[in-house]
Design goal:
Distance between the termini: 17 Å
Largest sheet: none
Number of strands: 0
Helix content: over 70%
Radius of gyration: 20 Å
Order of helices and strands: HHHHHHHHHHHHHHHHHHH
Strand content: under 5%
């Protein structure tokens, strides 16, 4: 049993929400801007992977310390989801997205002025906390305002952007690391965020607010979700998604450069080819959405597992490239599948469920980067393969009714 419906209905989106969908052309513009930000905002996490070597040189730190350039961001990012999801339910999605994007612009600009590594990590933490306004609130906005017939596809497009940020961030980080000052990775992004904030203010709908949402009511809803076995199975599987994504690319980059001797430009090429896998989610969700989000998420985990197994053949570039494409394709199916599954498991508390699920996605990302920093290529991929297989099993069982005794 979950928490009482009167409590659950206070947070999140569900089929009984009164908010009407905006006209299709206006929503298309909103989705386009939100998808651009879905790529640009989390990219700040992933650019730390290829720039770790630059941070070691510039700030004079070791590899373990350099890994915290990504981990401190992702930890603050993940914790911020728990705040901004509930805040958006209380005051509306648009104010949170606009104010949060402005705060992200300011912290990103200040980050580029860091005088030493201590200040750099402090500003990265602040940047991660501000950037947390985006992902859960944007997902909730699209789930609430998308036309019914386009909701699944719209969520798939948005989550594909979130995953695409992993590729875009690494391409940006590698390019800056090879050709420019490390500060160039931050101040142009600050200008982009500030411009996007103005666009959000103009394009998004007036907020749908619920003043009854409080910290206490949100915690009550979350306690109810954590007593629901199906929701717990989805939450547990979420830890493996971005964690495996970050860890895979961290060790892949080291393998391509350190073992196969690829140049930075060639590594960028491999990352760009891997991005082809991102096309799987919109295409599959458009033509196979009727099979249900849980089955698509399970299929995504198994596809990602296949990619990890192929990438174990590390002595030649072809298996690595093919494995990366298959792996990314699988992960691209998982995220919208998990969101859709949560909407079916807990339709009246989907806002809280999605926020907590997004929190766990990025907790996994933080852990994944630390795992990759302290383990070798084959060991990391073996750990990821086991985690992804367990996640597939958990999600496959999430839709089954409990056994009767």
């Amino acid at each position: 049993m979950t928490a009482p419906t009167s409590q659950l209905a206070r947070t999140g989106t569900g089929p009984h929400d009164p908010a009407p969908a905006p006209a299709a052309p206006r929503f298309a513009l909103q989705l386009t801007l939100l998808t651009v930000l879905a790529v640009a905002v989390p990219a700040q996490l992933y650019l730390a992977i290829p720039m770790a070597g630059r941070f070691r040189t510039v700030f004079g730190v070791d590899a373990g310390s350099a890994a915290w350039a990504g981990s401190c961001f992702s930890l603050a990012y993940a914790l911020g989801f728990l705040l901004f999801g509930a805040l958006a339910d209380r005051v509306g999605h648009r104010p949170v997205l606009v104010a949060g994007t402005v705060a992200t612009a300011l912290t990103t600009a200040v980050l580029s002025l860091s005088p030493d590594y201590g200040w750099f990590l402090a500003f990265r933490t602040m940047q991660g906390a501000a950037a947390a306004c985006f992902a859960p609130v944007a997902l909730a906005y699209v789930a609430r305002h998308a036309p019914d017939v386009r909701r699944s596809l719209a969520l798939s497009v948005l989550t594909t952007g979130l995953l695409g940020s992993g590729i875009a961030g690494q391409v940006l980080g590698q390019t800056v690391s090879d050709h420019a000052s490390w500060r160039t990775a931050f101040w142009p992004a600050a200008v982009l965020y500030l411009t996007a904030a103005a666009g959000l203010r103009l394009l998004l709908r007036d907020p749908v607010t619920d003043p009854s949402v409080t910290v206490a009511s949100t915690l009550a809803v979350l306690r109810g979700l954590l007593r629901t076995p199906q929701a717990v199975a989805v939450f547990a599987s979420a830890l493996t998604v971005f964690g495996s994504f970050v860890a895979f690319y961290a060790v892949l980059d080291r393998q391509l450069e350190g073992v196969l001797g690829m140049s930075g430009r060639q590594v960028l090429g491999v990352q760009a080819i891997g991005a082809v896998g991102l096309l799987a989610a919109p295409v599959v969700h458009r033509f196979a959405a009727a099979r249900g989000p849980r089955r698509l998420a399970t299929a995504g985990f198994l596809t990602a597992l296949t990619g990890l197994l192929v990438a174990q053949f590390r002595s030649a570039p072809v298996p690595l490239v093919l494995g990366s494409v298959v792996f990314v394709a699988g992960i691209s199916l998982v995220v919208p599948g998990l969101v859709g599954t949560l909407h079916r498991i807990a339709p009246h508390s989907a806002g809280t469920a999605v926020s907590f699920n997004t929190f766990l996605l990025f907790v996994g990302a933080s852990a994944g980067q630390l795992v990759a920093a302290h383990t070798g290529y084959r060991t990391t991929l073996a750990i990821l393969a086991a985690a992804v297989l367990l996640a597939a099993f958990a999600v496959a069982r999430a839709g089954r009714p409990p056994a009767r005794h």
